């Protein structure tokens, strides 16, 4: 049995302590034991949503692998005394998983985003990853009434990796509901990754990514995101309060064991 990576808890949400280059190797070992597996990528907005959305919190905490996608999670883990090694960005993880799929001969399926975006992303991925097979692309929607059709499409395609881009929490809840009947090895919610890969939405310059400023770049380019990003100050305040509370002997709910 594959040893689980160490867990870190940030305001009741679990993340795993893995470096970016370790993720695929760990998934490969897990997939060899059977599946399907769900991968989630956690950022501060996810944590704040999970605090009020119990179903979402349960999905995040039950996933086979939970990645710290966001410098806010890295910062919080340091503040709470159990740091994750680094940020593990969802779009970069998707790229690594596509390289893994190409090497193993596993077809992939891209589900979600606006019509046509998945196809554009697939074309880019095939160019970047030699021997990658794209079994299917489909926009669809996370509406439960479409689930039977979408699951059937994915299963008919023979895909082994499924990337779902419906945004959180819808994509992660969709995967969790349908995972038992999906005939894939791994399913992962990827948010806006298709847009980035397809070139529909430019990604922040590398220097901004390295300094944890990707959120600012996205806010400048997409001002409508301010409502979602308004959760960030509240997240920071809760992390700091948890640090103070724990310092007063209030427990370890933000550490490696607390929920």
Which properties best describe this structure?
alpha/beta, two-stranded antiparallel ribbon, 13 helices, six-stranded parallel β-sheet, 14% strand, 259 residues
Describe this structure in words.
The protein is α/β, with parallel strands linked by helices. It has one domain. It is built from 13 helices and eight strands. It has a six-stranded parallel β-sheet, sandwiched between helices. It has a two-stranded antiparallel ribbon with strand order 1-2. Strand 1 and strand 2 form a beta hairpin. The C terminus is likely disordered.
Number of domains: 1
Largest sheet: 6 strands, parallel
CA-based shape = globular
Beta-strand percent range: 5-15%
Overall pLDDT confidence: 89
- How much helical structure, as a percent, in the residues? 40-55%
Structural class: alpha/beta
* Unreliable residue runs: 252-259
Helical segment count: 13
Q: What's the total count of β strands? A: 8
**Helix and strand element order:** EEHEHHEHHEHEHEHEHHHHH
Neighbour order of strands in the largest sheet: 4-3-8-7-5-6
- From the N-terminal CA to the C-terminal CA, the straight-line distance is 25 Å
What Rg do the Cα atoms give? 18 Å
């Amino acid at each position: 049995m594959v040893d689980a990576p160490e867990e870190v808890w940030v305001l009741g949400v679990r993340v795993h302590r893995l470096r970016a280059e370790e993720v695929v190797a760990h998934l490969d070992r897990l997939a060899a034991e059977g599946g399907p597996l769900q991968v989630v990528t956690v950022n501060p907005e996810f944590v704040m949503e999970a605090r009020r959305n119990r179903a979402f919190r349960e999905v995040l905490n039950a996933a086979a692998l939970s990645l710290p996608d966001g410098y806010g999670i890295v910062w919080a883990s340091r503040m709470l005394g159990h740091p994750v090694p680094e940020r593990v960005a969802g779009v970069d993880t998707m790229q690594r998983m596509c390289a893994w799929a190409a090497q193993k001969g596993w077809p992939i399926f891209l589900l979600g985003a606006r019509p046509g975006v998945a196809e554009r992303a697939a074309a880019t991925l095939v160019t970047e990853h030699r021997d990658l097979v794209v079994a299917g692309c489909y926009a669809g929607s996370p509406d439960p009434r479409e689930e039977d059709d979408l699951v059937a499409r994915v299963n008919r395609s023979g895909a082994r990796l499924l990337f779902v881009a419906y945004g959180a929490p819808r994509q992660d809840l969709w995967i969790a509901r349908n995972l038992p009947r999906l005939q894939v090895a791994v399913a992962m919610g990827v948010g806006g990754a298709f847009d980035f890969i397809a070139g529909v939405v430019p990604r922040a310059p590398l220097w901004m990514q390295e300094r944890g400023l990707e959120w600012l770049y996205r806010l400048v380019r997409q001002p409508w995101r301010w409502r979602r990003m308004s959760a960030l100050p509240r997240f920071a305040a809760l992390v700091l309060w948890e640090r103070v509370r724990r310092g007063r002997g209030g427990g370890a709910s933000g550490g490696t064991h607390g929920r």
